[in-house]
Amino acid sequence: MNQSQIKIGTSAWGSKISIKKAITLGNKISNINLNHFDTAPNYGSGYSHYVLNNLGKRKNILVDTKYGQNIRLSLKELTKRIYRFKNFKSFMQSFKNIKFNNYERNNEKFWNINKIEKTFNSINIDLNYCKIKSFYLHSPPYGILTKKYLEEFSDFFIKKKIFPGISDPDTKDLMLIIENFPTINLQISLNTFWKNRKDLIYNMENIHLNSVFRKLNNDQIISNNIDSDFKDEFLEILKKKKNYKIILGINSNHTLEKLKDINLNFSNIFNKVNEKKN
Predict the structure, then answer these.
(1) Could you give the angle at which helices 48-56 and 113-126 cross, rounded to 10 degrees?
(2) Which residue range is the domain that position 200 belongs to?
(3) pLDDT of the residue at 29
(4) What is the CATH number of the domain that holds 150?
(5) Tens digit of pLDDT for each residue in 155-210?
(6) Do strands 6-9 and 36-38 pair parallel, antiparallel, or not at all (unpaired)?
(7) Are β-strands 6-9 and 62-67 bridged in parallel, bridged antiparallel, or unpaired?
(8) CA 87 to CA 37: how far, in whole Å?
(9) pLDDT tens, residue by residue, 138-169
(10) Strands, DSSP E only, in the chain?
(11) CA distances to 119, 207, 214, 257, 262 from 217, in Å
């Protein structure tokens, strides 16, 4: 496995940690040559894009983002955005992709390619100091994805030299992707990957895995689909599959330090972490 196979998850950047702390943490991460970040318009209470674009003004960073996350406007969401308020521009931007009901997302029109293109153009402005590497459909409801639809979606982003991707697809759609779109980016949980790993490894070229940090840091069984001694086999898969990536949510200096406990043979990363600490 190599260093480029790590992506940094930013779902808490602007919600669980402040915008200022998130920017500081992002600088520390990029200083140890981890420059690929996973985000979405509503991550970090809607501030994650703002944080990453601020980081991108000074660093060369890659960003994977998404369309279709199911976040509704509620008192809780409003409170989080007010609590993390930095300036009026970032505050207003945090509401751009929030939804007002659950039904809109389940409507076929919501997933129309023209609507996705419009949203992408807006996101591209929000992340104008970053390089968008991948653009995902976030958990599209079953019935949206068809072979024709995925071909149109893929063609649109390939022409822009951006990887098209599907994040956490419905289990009934997974085989459609596996059988027909081997080069599309597929972002799934470790549990889903482990349950379907034979088909996925044989067919899929680009898999990005989330929900792995806790498992790699200890020997607890987190699912009936994963046995307790899975780590060695999992790391061997990652070493052989160079296009596979793991997404690690780094939300503090403590979790950044815990990278050292995963033992993924990133000696150059860990040495730089220690150098910064000293």
Answers:
(1) 50
(2) 3-277
(3) 92
(4) 3.20.20.100
(5) 999 999 999 999 999 999 999 999 999 999 999 999 899 999 999 999 999 999 99
(6) parallel
(7) unpaired
(8) 23
(9) 999 999 999 999 999 999 999 999 999 999 99
(10) 6-9, 36-38, 62-67, 131-138, 163-167, 185-189, 206-210, 245-249
(11) 37, 21, 5, 12, 5
Q: Who's near 88: CB < 8 A, 6+ residues apart? A: none
What is the count of structural domains for the chain?
Answer: 1
Reduce the DSSP state of residue 240 to 3 states and report it: helix
b/e 86-112 (16+ beta carbons within 10 angstroms → b): beeebbebbeebbbeeeeebeeeebbe
Beta-carbon contacts of 146 under 8 Å, excluding residues fewer than 6 positions away, are: 176
Confidence label for 273 from pLDDT (cuts 50, 70 and 90): very low
Cα→Cα distances 114→65, 94, 120, 141, Å: 18, 22, 10, 18
pLDDT tens, residue by residue, 82-106: 888 888 888 888 888 777 566 778 8
**Apex 116 CA angle, 113 and 119, nearest 5:** 155
CB 159 within 8 A of CB 140: no
| Spatial separation of the C-alpha atoms in residues 18 and 237, rounded to whole Å | 36
Assigned token pair, 256: 């950044």
- pTM of the predicted protein model: 0.87
Confidence of residue 270 (pLDDT cuts 50, 70, 90): very low
Q: Torsion angle of alpha carbons 63, 133, 104, 150, nearest 10°?
A: -160
207 DSSP assignment:
E
Phi/psi-derived region of residue 276, left when phi > 0, alpha when psi is between -120 and 50, beta in every other case: alpha
